[in-house]
Design brief:
This protein is of the alpha/beta class and 433 residues long. The protein has helices spanning 38-42, 48-53, 74-91, 100-103, 110-131, 158-177, 200-221, 245-254, 267-272, 277-287, 313-325, 347-374, 376-384, 391-397, 401-411, 422-430, and strands at residues 12-13, 23-24, 32-33, 36-37, 44-47, 95-99, 134-139, 182-185, 191-192, 226-229, 239-240, 261-266, 290-294, 334-336. It folds into two domains: 12-374, TIM Barrel (Alpha-Beta Barrel), CATH 3.20.20; 379-430, no CATH class. The strands form four sheets. Strands 5-6-7-8-10-12-13-14 form an eight-stranded parallel beta barrel, surrounded by five helices. A two-stranded parallel ribbon has the order 1-2.
Length: 433
């Protein structure tokens, strides 16, 4: 145990009229919505990296956080785990997520990294058994260390590819040992800065082969969870191979993996790709590759992935509307890939950031559920496309240009434009917020 969160009570639901900062106003984990509890709908997870490994730096300044577990020893790693599981219990989050580099100190070799990871995995296992907190997903950090400056799977050096593949294997082993429900891959540096030194075709082939190896190992080890890719545009390289959901789906199709891999979609990354969060979620749903989400928000003026805690309920309602339309989460969930502002130094700030995010997610999901149950938005959408559900509409798609042209001529078809009614539908959505 630590005393980092000393004096902070367990967070409970007290309702919308509560004036207690350390209470939920909208997130009642036992509240049933559309036949499921909010706890089961939202499947909250806390991100180990931003909450416990990030020192508070930015491009113009270094560390601002002074955490007692910061250090490069296994003792510090165990203290970090103690603090993390205390926070999980205070918040009542059922899950957490981690990269290997978040939880173990960096060794001087792959073998030492593996020993450090295996030791902390055993420490996690005991804490998970004692608290009931589970692992939503694990992943490998293949971007922070200087060895990955030119990528991991896409690196021009075969030794870096080998080191990366071996690291992924150890992280998949750790995830399975801890009962993780998913394994995530995201290419923090799988892109390029200039074509002058880049063989794009070779790098794409390497990335595809690495993913095939991951899928093969999943089946070899008997892992029953989902393999997820997290699209990540522009950051830090200008040309990322995993730019958005549609780009990744094309990549999966190219390498025959569309039936094996799904998406972990982050709000901030959707914005950097020039999309809305709900667009990326809807695209994944339509393609049959929706898996899980990283919930955060960007500063829309910064042009950078600022990873702020979510607080925009209207945006979140539209996102969870798409999640519900996809059937909700199965192995996935809502991971807070979000960090404090570098001036938010106190333990209370870390707790209250999650409380606010969890409350905003709950309010958004309940609004989305009410909107879906009411059916007015879906009815309006169905009415707009009703012509395609007729025999004539279906026959049109089965026809060819000659036959269609003859029909247009014979029937003197001259369609009049019809309103899309966007403002009416926007007003409708606002009724549920």
């Amino acid at each position: 145990m630590t005393d980092f969160f000393k004096g902070i009570p367990a967070i409970t639901y007290q309702g919308p009229d509560s004036d207690n900062d350390f209470a939920f106003r909208h997130y009642n984990p036992d509240e049933v919505v559309m036949g499921k509890t909010l706890k089961d709908h939202l499947r909250f997870a806390a991100a180990y990296w931003h909450s416990f490994a990030w020192p508070g730096g930015d491009p113009f300044g270094g560390q601002t956080f002074d955490r007692p577990w910061f250090g490069d020893s296994m003792d510090a790693a165990r203290m970090k785990a103690d603090a993390a599981f205390e926070m999980f219990q205070i918040l009542g989050v059922p899950y957490f997520c981690f990269h290997d580099a978040d939880v173990r100190p960096e060794g001087n070799s792959f073998a030492q990294n593996t020993r450090n990871l295996e030791e902390i995995v055993d420490y996690f296992a005991a804490k998970m058994e004692a608290t009931g907190v589970k692992l939503l997903w694990g992943t490998a950090n293949l971007f922070s260390h200087r060895r990955f400056m030119a990528g991991a799977a896409t690196n021009p050096d075969p030794d870096v590819f080998a080191f990366s593949a071996a690291t992924i294997k150890t992280c998949m082993d750790a995830t399975m040992k801890l009962g993780g429900e998913n394994y995530v891959l995201w290419g923090g540096r799988e892109g390029y800065e200039t074509l002058l030194n880049t063989d794009m075709g070779r790098e794409r082939a390497q990335a595809g082969r690495m993913l095939q190896m991951v899928v093969d190992y999943k089946h070899k080890m008997g892992f029953k969870g989902a393999i997820l890719i997290e699209p990540k545009p522009q950051e830090p390289t200008k040309h990322q191979y995993d730019y958005d959901v549609a780009t990744v789906y094309g990549f999966l199709k190219e390498f025959g993996l569309e039936g094996e891999v799904k998406m972990n979609i982050e709000q901030g990354h959707a914005i950097l790709a020039g999309h809305s969060f709900e667009h990326e979620l809807a695209m994944a749903r339509e393609l049959g590759i929706f898996g899980s989400i990283d919930m955060n928000r960007n500063d829309y003026q910064s042009g950078w992935d600022t990873d702020q805690f979510p607080n925009n309920v209207p945006e979140m309602a539209l996102a969870y509307y798409e999640v519900l339309r996809a059937g909700g989460f199965t192995t996935g969930g809502t991971n807070f890939d979000a960090k404090l502002r570098r001036q938010s130094l106190d333990a209370e700030d870390l707790i209250l950031a999650h409380v606010g995010g969890m409350d905003a997610c709950a309010a958004g999901l309940k609004a989305a559920a009410a909107m879906l149950a009411d059916g007015k938005l879906e009815s309006a959408r169905d009415a707009r496309y009703a012509g395609w559900d007729t025999e004539a509409g279906r026959a049109l798609l089965a026809s060819d240009l000659d036959a269609i042209t003859a029909k247009v001529m014979a029937q003197a078809i001259n369609p009049a434009p019809r309103s899309g009614r966007q403002e009416r539908l926007e007003n409708l959505v606002n009724r549920y917020l």
